[in-house]
């Protein structure tokens, strides 16, 4: 038990040091998922547009454990603009290699995934000044099932990140 606690402490300290030295991050926040992520549970983040001139990259960040049993992840992500416009996407992310090994970074059974949301195909600009919000919900299903997975296990934290794009 002491070994696991010491390992978790080192992971937390490493993440803190890595993120504290990150000058590209404009917004970077996580919210914890208690035990399981219910299919109706929406995780929301609110942030202010940094400017309307620069290009930005937007990411959904996830932390998961080896209790995550799927090779992919489907998310519904909605970006709400200050003046009422909303853009909703259903996105699929690869979460495991063909051999079943979970993707992401991390030294223990806790993996961190930085998943593209906006800015990867074409530059993303905040074209409206003001307050934005992002809502994230899982849309996982077992093969052959019509109904979604009610409680998704293995996801511990959901985050959202805005960084200034490299020129």
Automatic annotation (TrEMBL):
Question: Where in this chain does the entry annotate a coiled-coil region?
Answer: none
Q: Which PROSITE patterns match?
A: PROKAR_LIPOPROTEIN (PS51257)
Which keywords does this chain's UniProt record carry?
Signal
Show which residues constitute the signal peptide: 1-25
Q: Does the keyword Signal apply?
A: yes
Signal: is it a keyword of this entry? yes
Xref: NCBIfam families: GldH_lipo
Q: State the name under which the record lists this protein.
A: Protein involved in gliding motility GldH
